[in-house]
Amino acid sequence: MPQEGRARPQAGLDVAGLIKRFGLSVAVAGVDLSVRPGEFFTVLGPSGCGKTTLLRMVSGILVPDGGRIAIGGRDVTAAPIWTRRVGLVFQNYALFPHMSVAQNVAFGLSMQGVAREERTARVARALGTVRLDGYEARRPSELSGGQQQRVALARAIVTEPDLLLLDEPLSNLDARLREDMRAELLELQRRVGITTVLVTHDIHEAFALSDRVAVMRAGKVEQLGAPTELYERPANRFVAGFLGPVNEWEGRVEARAEGQARVAVDGIGSFDVAAPANCAVGQTAWLVLRPERVCIEAAEATASGLVGRVDHVSHLGNLVNYRVALGARALAVQSPPLRGRTLGVGQSVRVSWHAGDVAAVAL
């Protein structure tokens, strides 16, 4: 672990055309991505999309069938795992149950042949960094899930790796502890300054922690960008739906000029949006609108918007989910509870939104 105040050299990660096959199945299909030095980068996607396989190739656990991996500008595509200077934290922590906390953290240093005195000092610093001072003599079985996760983090960073790789590290924790550990993990990463790549299927985790996110599907990166960019301007219907509830409308392009398109949706209206890729007048375009961007009021409370009828309500404490029937269409709406009013099933309502909240996406 670098001492406080000491600048840490930062290394980036570059992956080009990475391919991995298992028999006739292609798990990773030509992935390109670049992680900036010091960045917290997340690979996000559903089970089976290839994200863990990608991480294992970066770490050296798996050998790619094609492509190139570079860490800090050094080509490590064919390098064995112990030469790559990466720290790994697994979903199940992979702690040695017969070893103490200190022995678990020191394991990598022992394998590197670090002298006992230096090893002891670095283990103490690592445990201090993850707030486990005084736990040196305990066994993993004597620790909570969150404490075991911190031990795994300490073991990963004590060797001062160039790259920290996290494979679903919070998935075994309960919801409240997972939220607490997200904050601790981000604070630790910022303080240590290590380039970090997280693999997860948890959207909230990815968005809470990451500078940038790559969304994967079927072995390919569908979109890469800052969390707000992905959420507000998804590249296609898969990304839009995977990142949270969304209203989808099939429309027809009425006009197009200077990167903008006017798209008409039957029963809803026409929208001026950034022009979908490869669309022309008369072609189909898909529009998306997040439920929380829809304003809902009792019909008599406002004269603006579309009139519909509430056909489902679910209360989530600080939020209420509505389904509003607009003729033959259903509109999902998410709103804070309306002060002094309750919108119930069967009630007539008006819904509206800002034109800029509607985005056009590819199929």
What do you see in this structure?
With 363 residues, the protein is of the alpha+beta class. It contains 8 helices and 20 strands. The strands form 4 sheets. Strands 6-7-8-3-9-10 form a 6-stranded mixed sheet, with helices on both faces. The chain has a 5-stranded antiparallel sheet with strand order 13-12-11-14-20, with no helix packed on it. It starts with 12 loop residues before the first strand and ends with a strand.
Can I get a quick summary?
With 363 residues, the chain is α+β, with helices and mostly antiparallel strands. It has helices at 51-59, 101-111, 116-129, 145-157, 175-192, 203-209, 227-232, 237-242, and strands at 13-22, 25-35, 40-44, 66-71, 74-75, 86-89, 163-167, 195-200, 212-217, 220-225, 247-257, 260-265, 269-274, 284-289, 295-298, 306-315, 320-326, 329-335, 348-352, 359-361. The protein has eight helices and 20 strands.
Indicate the topology:
Blueprint: E1 13-22, E2 25-35, E3 40-44, H1 51-59, E4 66-71, E5 74-75, E6 86-89, H2 101-111, H3 116-129, H4 145-157, E7 163-167, H5 175-192, E8 195-200, H6 203-209, E9 212-217, E10 220-225, H7 227-232, H8 237-242, E11 247-257, E12 260-265, E13 269-274, E14 284-289, E15 295-298, E16 306-315, E17 320-326, E18 329-335, E19 348-352, E20 359-361
Parallel strand pairs: 3-8, 3-9, 6-7, 7-8
Antiparallel strand pairs: 1-2, 1-4, 4-5, 9-10, 11-12, 11-14, 12-13, 14-20, 15-19, 16-17, 16-19, 17-18
